[in-house]
Amino acid sequence: MDKIGLTLGKFAPLHQGHQFLIETALGEMDRVIVVIYDSPDVTDIPLTIRANWLREIYPTIEVIEAWDGPTEVSDRPEVKRNHEDYLLERLKSQKITHFYSSEFYGQHISEAFKAVNRLVDCDRQKVPISGSEIRKNPFQYRQYLQDLVYRDLITNVVFLGAPATGKTTIACRLAKDYNTVWMPEYGREYWEKYQVNRRLSGEQLLEIAEGHLEREEALLQQANQYLFTDTNAITTYHFSLYYHNSADYKLIELARQAASRYDLVFVCGSDIPYDDTCDRSGSTNRNIFQKQLISQLIMRKIPFFELSGNLEIRMQRVKMILSKYQKYNNHLSLFPIY
After folding, report:
1. What residues does CATH 3.40.50.620 cover in the chain?
2. pLDDT tens, position by position, for the chain (338 residues)?
3. Could you tell me the strand order of the sheet in which 181-183 lies?
4. Which of the listed CATH numbers 3.30.1490.100, 1.25.40.10, 3.30.200.20, 3.40.50.620 matches domain 4-135?
5. β-sheet bridge partners, residue 64
6. pTM value?
7. Could you tell me how many helices (H) and strands (E) the chain has, helices first?
């Protein structure tokens, strides 16, 4: 008979303690089932995201999303019975042989399934951390979080706008103030190295978008709560239209993905003096580019905040919005959009 292991939890967020338990089960069982609860009273991170962490990191396990599962946890008989009844109903076609946990409920759940009560690292000797500790400050406990999990906790803030609208300056300043990292515009670095007669090919523009994304992903692992990003693939896509009146299909796809990649989008206004450097095409083009960019955002249904005034005014507006923003708990009614 196959050995089928079961474990459950909120995984809010998934951390090394959870992973040690799951990996122990994978090493001992023929099949492993993980039940993950919605738990909106504990975490704002959607169940879908937490379940996807499990599926991506452990593709061989079976993940069951318990959207309607009981949320109260205690040692009271009626609470324990609710959990037992729910699990027995959801898994009635499965013959669970081992129940894995490091909690008090291991005893009564394993008895309900007539399974072995397999306790793992109950005293937290292998992994000295708990989910409740991490939830207080996940960025402090980064070493206990897998890369995929940690990146999904970072608020990625992107600054868009025509050339010479202050994107670089504000992204750099905010990173310093929030003790985190920022993502410089890779396209500027690339242009300085490879431009020919102030132009780039369509293939080169795709390389810019891909290179920018690769660096951005790396910086998400180093960020502390926020990553401040200067420009994204929508801007590169626009430059492709400007140069060639067309864009590589891969670049078109990266621009499409950018619509949902960033948590907050700020458009830096063109109401500051124009700094005419060799990589720019004049103040008239700046104004046209600005209008076209805003049109792109509206067409793609991307909410954004406009920034105007001097640097300090812009910084104050961004900080006010960040003070109200909670990742995975967005109340747009708090903010003026467009």
Report:
1. 4-135
2. 799 999 999 999 999 999 999 999 999 999 999 999 999 999 999 999 999 999 999 999 999 999 999 988 888 999 999 999 999 999 998 999 999 999 999 999 999 999 999 999 999 999 999 999 999 999 999 999 999 999 999 999 999 999 989 999 999 999 999 999 999 999 999 988 988 888 899 999 999 999 999 999 999 999 999 999 999 999 999 999 999 999 999 999 999 999 999 999 999 999 887 665 554 454 668 899 999 999 999 999 999 999 999 999 999 999 999 999 999 987 555 555 44
3. 181-183, 226-230, 155-160, 264-268, 305-307
4. 3.40.50.620
5. 35
6. 0.91
7. 13, 10
